[in-house]
Each structure stands twice: as structure tokens, then as C-alpha cells.
Amino acid sequence: MQSKTLIVTLLLIATSLSGCISDDEHHDDYDFNGMEYNPASPAPDFTLMDQNGNSVTLSDFSDQVVVLAFTYTACPDVCLAIEANLDYIDSEMSDESDLVILSVTIDPARDTSEHLWGWTNVRGYDWPHLTSENHDELQHVWTDYNLLV
To answer: How far apart are CA 89 and CA 82, in angstroms?
Structure first.
């Protein structure tokens, strides 16, 4: 019985210390899963209409950091989380004048400027939510950004 207790104690000590023992020479090594875009791919320009009926061109923000999201208002799950995260970024970084958030719809049949206006106002979202009456125009944006809609 005493030997079992000793073995269990040694195992607990070994597992609890396993993260504390390291080779300082390689402490920055890590496994990266994914693709690093270096240099970053260009952001193709576009002009779309926001929820207020104003024309918005990506190149208008060339000296700013742009967070670009593709969502739609009828999305029952992930888009709501994306929009909530964008709202969090917007509120937490509201003092950053060089940060711009843009949401582009992937459902222009439903997401008209009028619909986007009501949807954003109910939620308190004040960044541009973009659409177009010309669905070919949006198709070009989706293609330029490698989206399959």
C-alpha cells in the first residue's frame, strides 16, 4: 500500500512540474498551424452603399487599419457572434481614430440599405454595413476576397 502511495505521489509531482522544466534556449519555439501571409495580400478596392445610403469606398481608408467582415442579417449563428465581436472592438477601441470597421453583406437580396439601417439601429451598431442593389458588384467583391457565397 505504501509503495502505491509513493508511486502516485511521484507521478503527481512529475506531472505538476512538467510545465516548469524547460530548455531556455528554445523557449520561443512554437507550432504554427495555418498559413502566414507574408507579405499580406492586397485588399482590392470597392465602392458599396452603407445602411444610410452613402457610398463607401475602401480606398477612402487607405491610411487606416480596416477590419473587414462578411456577414448577413438573417444568419442564425456565427454572424451574430462576429457582429458582437466587432461591436466589442468598436467600443473598446473607440478612441482609435485610425481604426475602421466595415461589414459587407453576403445576402444582398435581404440586406438592402433600408433593412441594414433598421437592423444596425436596433443593435446600436454605428459602423458601415455595406450592400449594393447591383448584385454583380457584390459578386466581384466576394470574388476579389476569395469568398464563395
So the answer is: 11
Q: Give residue 46's pLDDT band: very low, low, confident or very high (50, 70, 90).
A: very high
What does 117-148 look like in DSSP terms, one character per residue?
HHHHHHHT--S-EEB-S-HHHHHHHHHHTT--
Give the pLDDT band of residue 24 (cuts 50, 70, 90).
Answer: low
H/E stretch holding 19: none
Quote the pLDDT of residue 2. Answer: 53
**67 pairs with which residues across the strands?**
101
Are 116 and 131 contacting, i.e. CB atoms less than 8 angstroms apart?
A: yes
Name the residue among 60, 61, 64, 83 with its Cα closest to residue 72: 83
pLDDT at 17 over 60: no
Q: Is 58 helix (H, G, I), strand (E, B) or coil?
A: helix
Q: Give 3-state DSSP helix, strand, coil % of the chain, rounded to 5.
A: 40, 15, 45
Per-residue cell: 141: 467583391
Which residues 6+ apart lie within 8 Å of 83 measured at CB?
Answer: 69, 71, 103, 123, 125
